[in-house]
């Protein structure tokens, strides 16, 4: 309210005079950061994706994803899969397959229904209640299979070379779930503040961008109802620099 804004003008910290006013209009700005650092954003599903390189079996990978409010990735359509295949994942560290090929645990399981020469079966989404509709084609079977296993876990293989990546070449493997592999987590897009903290639904925050004086409400992973504070230039200082992460904070550059 206006009364509160007016009363702020002379209530700076330590007796300093802090002078600013608010503009109660939504800012016509698009914010590019909707995922935490290290995650890739895809607008089509409003989701974030991250590859974890620490080789884990399927069940440990599930728990690692859950600890960051994510799950092993499943896909809703070919477009989403093509986005994943085209990404330049950070894979310089140790991986568990050939350097030109990358395999990740993803959120599907292959249920074997008939153990003949072709290992008949079908893919299922690993967690019931998922809204995903895309299921993989017939898999390539891994080499570490046990005759006792009736459920195998999905690995998506993509290629490191850019030309192969952008052509969308890939394979699906049904592998022993206790093999160790890198894995791909997926989570809903989220609000990320200017200091790279994740913001919960309904809370106020300053989004990443060029304006540390912007305060928005987090709604469905988007900053909405934004309010901007405009600062007066520092008094008695000809040359100054704005702090990129704190509102109305300046550094005087005068001698």
TrEMBL record:
GO terms for cellular component: membrane. It comes from the Eukaryota. Residues 44-186 form the C-type lectin domain. Pfam families: Lectin_C. Transmembrane segments: none annotated. Gene3D superfamilies: Mannose-Binding Protein A, subunit A. This is IDD protein. PROSITE patterns: C_TYPE_LECTIN_2.
